[in-house]
Design a protein that fits this description.
CATH topology of the largest domain: Rossmann fold
Number of domains: 2
CATH architecture of the largest domain: 3-Layer(aba) Sandwich
Shape: globular
Strand content: 15-25%
Helix content: 40-55%
CATH superfamily of the largest domain: Glycogen Phosphorylase B
Number of helices: 15
Radius of gyration: 21 Å
Order of helices and strands: EHEEEHEHEHHEHEHEHEHEHEHEHEHHH
CATH class of the largest domain: Alpha Beta
């Protein structure tokens, strides 16, 4: 697997790598981590560092960071494949062009998967405020098509993402949806929704990315509004980036100096369930743009899995999967988020009923089903080559 991320906090990579290792496969992850061998079940996961980390800054730093990782990953994959030929290589975007780091194994016939975590053209356009018709965005769409053409199979997070790429000519002989649903190995079985407390503060939680598009500042402002009106609410934020957490903590100290806690360091995936278990309500305050309209955030599914009433931004994919079984708020509107939180406090019985219905919807797409389909796909692609290394 090649992924421009930190294995420790990347739950999608962990779910898939562990599913393979548990049954005895040997999985090599070329990523941002130092070398480490992790025994899992009958197999193991081996981490290989391709670059030091993701640089901060504007377009130049962004492109330079991608170029450094690409170069390091290409060298690492080539060296590893010389040492012990892979049966399969899976590239996790972004960027899509990481497929070319596996050119050597591809040329000798190794099956290649491109796993679309996100749609890169939409993300780039929103990150750098470019229109869909901007030359750079068109160039990235071309890069997406060329990169996708090199892969034997495409994996998508949702059917909506698959349909979008198919509509712009990105297709493969084999495609499959493997959704970002909670890993029962970490989170345990789905929990029955519990009644909210009758007294004491309502504890709200957010975990995951802290980039502006995730709308965490909107949530902080909503909590500040509620506390200003005398509501007993508290917010804990567990981010995946230390520098972004420091920046958010500085803003939170001005907006809501009491009642908001920002964890200073990234929280490992294995610690998330305990953090969520200490909260009453999960909030997913994602802002709306061409990129986030395609998201079904894994944090939302994790809140539902833990039996928590959940508030989420009114975004198309979220609405299509859960309808009003999660309470919807207008993206980027602190007053709307505050009203939704107050609605949960005012009618805890209805909040629990929504959580029950959301849990039943999650059961239809839970990780055990996703895992079985993923492992079957791996076996299909590696058939006849010996599936000892993925």
């Amino acid at each position: 697997m090649v992924h421009y991320s930190d294995f420790v906090v990347d739950s999608r990579i962990q779910r898939q790598a562990r599913a393979l290792a548990e049954r005895g496969d040997e999985v090599h992850c070329v990523c941002l981590n130092d070398h480490e061998e992790i025994p899992v079940g009958a197999g193991k996961i081996v981490l290989h560092r391709a670059a030091a980390g993701k640089p901060r800054g504007g377009k130049r730093a962004y492109l330079e960071g991608n170029a450094r990782f690409f170069s390091g990953a290409a060298r690492r994959v080539t060296a590893l494949d010389r040492r012990h030929r892979f049966d399969l290589v899976e590239i996790h975007n972004m960027p899509d062009a990481l497929v070319f780091t596996a050119l050597r194994p591809k040329l000798r016939g190794t099956p290649l998967i491109l796993n679309f975590h996100d749609t890169f053209p939409e993300l780039f356009a929103t990150l750098f405020d470019r229109s869909p018709g901007h030359p750079l965005v068109r160039l990235i769409r071309a890069e997406e098509r060329i990169s996708a053409a090199l892969a034997d199979c495409h994996i998508f997070v949702t059917g909506e993402a698959r349909d979008l790429l198919a509509a712009r000519g990105v297709a493969a002989t084999r495609t499959q949806v493997v959704m970002n649903t909670p890993d029962e190995r970490i989170f345990g079985a789905r929990r029955d929704p519990l009644a909210l407390p009758q007294e004491g503060p309502l504890r709200i939680v957010y975990h995951g990315g802290l980039a502006e598009r995730f709308g965490v500042e909107t949530l902080v402002r909503a909590v500040a509004m509620l506390r200003a009106d005398g509501a007993e609410v508290e917010l804990d934020v567990y981010g995946s980036d230390a520098e972004a957490a420091r920046s958010l903590a500085q803003k939170a100290a001005e907006i809501a100096p009491v009642g908001v806690r920002i964890a200073p360091q990234p929280t490992p995936v294995e610690e998330i369930p305990d953090r969520l278990a200490a909260a009453h309500l999960g909030v997913v305050p994602t802002l709306r743009d061409d990129f986030t309209e395609l998201l079904l955030p894994v944090k939302l599914l994790e809140y539902v899995h833990m039996g928590m009433p959940t508030i989420a931004s009114r975004l198309p994919v979220i609405e299509s999967y859960f309808g009003d079984d999660v309470l919807l708020a207008e993206p980027g509107d602190p007053a709307s988020v505050a009203a939704a939180i107050e609605g949960v406090r005012a009618d805890p019985v209805l909040a629990r009923q929504r959580a029950v219905r959301a849990s039943l919807r999650l059961a239809e797409i839970e990780w055990r089903r996703q895992r079985d389909g993923y492992l079957a796909l791996i076996d299909e692609l590696a058939a006849g080559r010996g599936a000892s290394v993925a």
